Amino acid sequence: MRDPAELWSIKRRSLDRACRSARRGDAEGLHDVRVALRRISATAGALSRRDLARRAKKLVRSLSGERQLEVDRQLLTRVGRIGLLSPDAVTALAARWEALAARRSQRLERTCDGKEVRALLKKVSRLSRAERSDAVDRLERARRRAESVLAVSLEGQNDRAMHRYRVAVKRARYLAEDLATLGLRQWKTHAERERAIQEALGRWNDLRMFARRIAGNRAEAEARGAVTLAAELGHVVAALESAVASARRAAVEASKTKSQVSGLKSQVAPKAGLGT
How many Å apart are CA 137 and CA 144, to the nearest integer? Predict the structure, then answer.
């Protein structure tokens, strides 16, 4: 069993490395910064470091717009490649989104160099030198609480419920990975299963948010009299409806195994005295 304090060393290095990547302008820099912060928040919440969890979560949320724009620009390129939009339409949107991205990239740099991230790194560094002796028990209890949310089926749920489930899957996965890192290898299988569910939900959410941006751009085009562009974007919105619906079905299907397993454990564990 590894010293729980090592978790904080790993998380400090991950965030520091992600911020350096973001400063260089690496393609995955923004994504890596947000993931590193989410992992810190999950672990901090489980170990009753509530202020640290809150700070990390606040930073993640402050960069949500930047991340979604990054994803939308990637999807716009894909839409252009498959011919859903004409080259002129893609160029027009890309130019508008590029200007927006340039302004927002400055926010990422300010965040990585800002006092909030520096203070957070210092706090994590201090924790890496010592952690409570009951950290593993706390992590396991938090993991069980997170998993209990996943016992609910996503069948027939609305977008808000789907989003909450996606957040819960991330948290459960990060806690499972913490426990596996500390030497409890049985958690690795859980983390791998939840990663697949998370990715399916992520594809659905990315398409849903992309469709929302396209719809907004269509409304703007109509307002300024860009009839041709508005018509093209209308066709894309229609095409995205079926794509979003398909991604939703795939995400619901992916979650079924998890909800069945979690539900079975919740019924068996109290009777047999089994942990997760």
Answer: 11
The CB density around residue 170, as the number of other CB atoms within 10 Å, is 22
Helices (H), the chain: 5-24, 29-46, 50-62, 64-81, 87-113, 115-127, 135-149, 159-181, 187-223, 227-272
* Residue 75, both tokens: 């999807």
How many CB atoms neighbour CB 22 within 10 A?
24
CB 12 within 8 A of CB 125: yes
Neighbours of 47 (CB within 10 A): 22
Angular region, 152: left φ>0, alpha ψ -120 to 50, beta rest: beta
Distance CA 123, CA 180 (A): 23
- pLDDT-based confidence at residue 103 (cuts at 50, 70, 90): confident
**Burial environment of residue 44 by CB neighbours within 10 A (0 to 12, 13 to 18, 19 or more):** buried
- Tell me, what amino acid is at 2? R
- How many whole angstroms separate alpha carbon 30 and alpha carbon 46? 25
Cα separation values, 60 from 25, 29, 64, Å: 18, 13, 7
In which band, very low, low, confident or very high, does the pLDDT at 275 lie, cut at 50, 70 and 90? very low
Q: List the structure tokens of 212.
A: 């929302």
Contact between 165 and 29 (Cβ < 8 Å): no
